[in-house]
Write a structure and sequence with these properties.
The chain is of the alpha/beta class. It has eight helices and 16 strands. The chain has two domains: 278 residues, Rossmann fold; 57 residues, no CATH class. Helix 3 packs across helix 4.
Length: 377
Amino acid sequence: MHANTPAHDDALNKVAQLEARVKDLEVQLAAARGQTITLDAKGTTLVQRKALFAADMGGFFSVPAWLERFSLDVGHNEGKVMVADWLPRRSDMFAIGIEANPHLVALFESIVTNGRWPADFEGRWWHVNDAEYAVDNARAYRRARQRGQLLLIHAAVSNAYAGVVPFNPGFGWRKDVLVPDVGSLLEWQHASRKKAASPHFVPVASLRLDEVLARVPPRLWFDTLKVDIQGADADALISAGRYLERFACVVGEFRANHYDVPSGVVVDPKEVLERSGFHKIAESMREKVWVNRRFLARFDAPGNYTCTAGEAVPGAKANRTAADARAEDAARHEKVVAAVRCVRDRLEGSATSVGGHRRCEWRGGWLMPSRKQPGVG
């Protein structure tokens, strides 16, 4: 037998030290799992854990077996998209909403647990009409939540920030009334709201989208990702990581008007979406629509996809009938089919595709076949 050299002994000692360190970390992790109060990611704020949703044996959301698809609403607000738009359209959908505004979340939680909105809610945070609309959505959410179909998470979404972050829920934009549509992690531009009061920030826990998406059961196919968080939309997309390319459709505003965007925070989603295989098919002030080239066949039939962001909400207007909603859906589907055909032509390298002989063009906010086709006078 050969005697161990000093170098060999030193290596063995280092391995033993590393093994001891691993065991120590395992003990710390096991202890942390049992704690309800722990430090945030920055180690500067104590946070309290709370029950979120039932988990299956694999650590995924325990979703009812009759649900087949999944969509994510980042910037849930008053439930205009997830509750009032997606829920009536897709009975087979499991959907998660993420909302940073503590007052909006308090409303939904109060309706779910107590069947009524919090004391002094009406008029204090919203005008009466706004409050009634939000309460109707909260009641619909309560019924769907009891079926295991919907989940609302209170958090700010960010790739650039970690731990507990300051969030402006919308105070100061309009005198004495909370305006939830402008709540953001970002500061308002002074020039855009010279008469606005100073924004009031509240501490909110932040998370990355991949933390949530990693818990979605693999059997569900990813339908729509909607993002509307006032200037931080593209930054949220980046936090989805490799899960982004599993969605068939991404919808959002993707604008930073009125906000001061810190250096290093991405605003334009073009690069991250194109890198993940998405192509833009629609663009307006309130909605930009991107489809995933991997799942273009899903857009052939209207029942195969959602891909909306609540621009046309069934029942939102008293004079809008169910027939009106069906007609609007049919008209939108025609535009989606035409736009997806343009994307297919581009990917297949058709001689008459966009970038070739301009078979397609932007018209009315949609990518559409050109009225003047090649070879036509």
